[in-house]
Design brief:
Elements lengths: L1 E8 L5 E4 L5 E10 L5 E9 L1 H10 L8 E13 L7 E12 L5 H21 L2
Parallel strand pairs: 4-6
Antiparallel strand pairs: 1-3, 1-5, 2-3, 3-4, 5-6
């Protein structure tokens, strides 16, 4: 089974290691916020050179709440390590892309910048 969508990084820190063959492994907790206080967690793993390059480029940005566009495969339900035991989804990452964080202050600044550019254009127009 495969899934694609917008998920958010959970509070668990990314896990980075290598398997017995030396292959790079990146493990992430991804959260699917479904509204009304309901969410599902995915323990997602990414293997190989592409995962290592992503980690090298974005490690400092992989913080709780960071939105990502994820393409996942091999989805399986397993018992989680919580008490009481709760089911959680496990998956392999095929692709992962960081999305911009929603920041209302930043949106206001962007709107102000756009207005400034419009005003500049109007001032220089013949």
């Amino acid at each position: 089974m495969q899934a694609t969508g917008t998920l958010f990084l959970g509070r668990t820190r990314p896990r980075v290691d290598r398997d017995a063959a030396g292959t790079f492994r990146l493990g992430l907790l991804l959260i699917d916020n479904q509204g009304s206080g309901h969410s599902e967690s995915y323990r997602a793993h990414w293997l190989g050179d592409e995962a290592e390059a992503f980690w090298a480029a974005h490690a400092s940005q992989l913080t709780p709440g960071q939105p990502v566009q994820a393409e996942l495969t091999r989805l399986r339900v397993r018992t989680g390590s919580t008490y009481p035991p709760m089911p959680e989804l496990h998956a392999r990452i095929v692709r992962l892309r960081l999305l911009p964080r929603h920041n209302s202050g930043n949106a206001s600044a962007n709107k102000h910048e756009q207005l400034s550019k419009t005003e500049q254009h109007e001032a220089t127009a013949p």
